[in-house]
Structures are given as C-alpha cells and as structure tokens.
C-alpha cells in the first residue's frame, strides 16, 4: 500500500456529529497504517479525544474570515510532507483549507455533510479548489451534481455508527425517575441542534394531536441552539411544559436512546442525520421527514415512517400509528439495527475514504 500522511482539518469543538465521524475515521485509518495529523481548534473536545489516533496540531481557527488560517495550515502541510489534506468542516475550513492546499501543492479532499444549495457562481469557484469531494449521502451528491460539479469528482461515503457503543437494551433502570416520568408513559425523543432546518416547530405542532389521542405521552427534546428560547416560549404558550421537556445537550445518548419508545426527526434539510444512525443502532423506530439523505437511513414501513417535510398532521399520525403498535415498533427496531450493521459500519466508511485517498495518490504518482 502507498504510505499516506493525511492532514485532517476539523473546525468543530464538540465531539458529536461531524467531529465524531472524523474521530471514527482517524481511528480506522490508524489501524490501516495511515499517519494522521489532525488540525483542529485549540481547546476542542476532538483534540483531546483524537490524541491516541492522530498527531494533533491545535491551531487558532476563527471562522470564514480568518485568512491567517491559510498560512497556518499551509505551514503544517509543508512541514509534515502531507500526501493530501482532508477538509471535514464547512465553517472556517472548506474554502480557506482549499486555498492552503493549492498553495502547498497538496491534493485536497472535501467532505460535504449538508444538502443546502449554494450559489452556482460560488460552486464553480469553490469546488475547483478540491481534487475530490466525498458526500455523506446520495442526496448531498445529487445537490452538487445539480449545481454543476462533475460526477467523476464526487463520491458518496455514508457516515457511520459505532454499533458497540450504540446498541439495544435500556441500561439505565431508573431513567424514568431521573426525568420524572410515569412508569406507563410512552416517551418520544427528538435530538437535534435547535436551528430552523431541524424542524422542531413541526413537532410542537404535532404534539397536541398525539396528546389528544394518548394524553400520557411525554416528549424529551435533547440539544441546544439559537432557537431554544423561542421554542420554550412556544411550549409555554401552548400549556405543554409538563408534556414537552427540554433536557439540554447530553453525552449519554447511547444510554438514553434504547430506553425511548420512538425517535422523531422532522428536519426539512438534512445531509444524512447521525442521530438517525444512533437511534437505529439502538433498535429505536423512527418517524422522520423525507428530506435530504434521511430516506437513505429511514426506510418507510421498514424501520420507521416517513412523512412529507413540514406536514405536522402527518407527523402526528405516523407517531400515533407506531405508539399504538408495540409489536410493529419492535420489528422496525430490529430492522433498523440490521440496516446500520450492513450499510453504515465504521469499517465501510473508513474503506470508502481510503479508496479516495488511493486514487488521488496514484494520480499524483503517475503525474
């Protein structure tokens, strides 16, 4: 195998979502003999977690306008004799990292995780910076192709899930007591950053319909974000503070998800949705909007139900359908576990990225 030194750039500070995928990738690449160097923000969670699987270079990373980052990253690429640079983040890393790679004359890979469209003029200028683009879903790939990026330049490598950590079986006997939940209450969870595209407002619109049919239902909303105060105000206005609980950001979702009855994910834009993989790995059935890459994880009638994005009544109907049928939830949960084991393993994700690296290294050697 061609020896690789790969410089990875991740601007996220917390170890979930994209940064967690980067950690899985680093861990898998190390076992395959790849030398990993991780460029990340000073004081970030991934810097600490990745110390065992990569050489960490913590640098100032101040966002899209931090043009000084170009020089800092270029210096790392040259000093480490990088085979290629892999950019994993959008904010403060994609364009600036691509320029640094060009200046250092190092092959450049970008991972794209979101399906929101970009201005066509920007696409043409931006994606010329990269030798290859990895998308986390076919939905994201289709967005890029529709905007004019060459198909030969874009490859889908699905995000992955640690099925040893996220597994079936509630391992927290007194979890209901911890959240002040009655023993017989059906519990529906939603775990997402509180931003517009995650669709929290559709859950708040759907919840009263569910509660009319099953008054004992309780909703747990995990996460933080800029819309939190507005969402809390809406719950208060509706008089649902007892039925809908905001429980903040949790690092123990692997312990909590197997205890729930249902996960709901009404996002209107979504590249793939790592929380969907986590829920499926825990044999938790899912009700979600058929947006972006979500249908690549949630198969309607197999491991969950899909509804039209923005349709709160359909969301409520799908939730009630599953809450009324314990056997169907159990069968869907088992199907979800099989799907993630067969299609979204860490090994498959690592090998997919490694194929991209090998192709670029071969082209460089031939040149």
UniProtKB/TrEMBL annotation:
Entry keywords, A to Z: Transferase
Matching CDD domains: GT4_PimA-like
Pfam families to which the protein is assigned, alphabetical: Glyco_transf_4, Glycos_transf_1
Ranges in coiled-coil conformation: none
Domain Glycosyl transferase family: 174-338
Residue ranges occupied by any Glycosyltransferase subfamily 4-like N-terminal domain in the UniProt entry: 21-165
InterPro entries: Glyco_trans_1, Glyco_trans_4-like_N, Glycosyltransferase_grp1
Alphabetized GO MF terms: hexosyltransferase activity
Protein name, entry field: Glycosyl transferase
Taxonomic classification: Bacteria, Pseudomonadati, Pseudomonadota, Gammaproteobacteria, Acidiferrobacterales
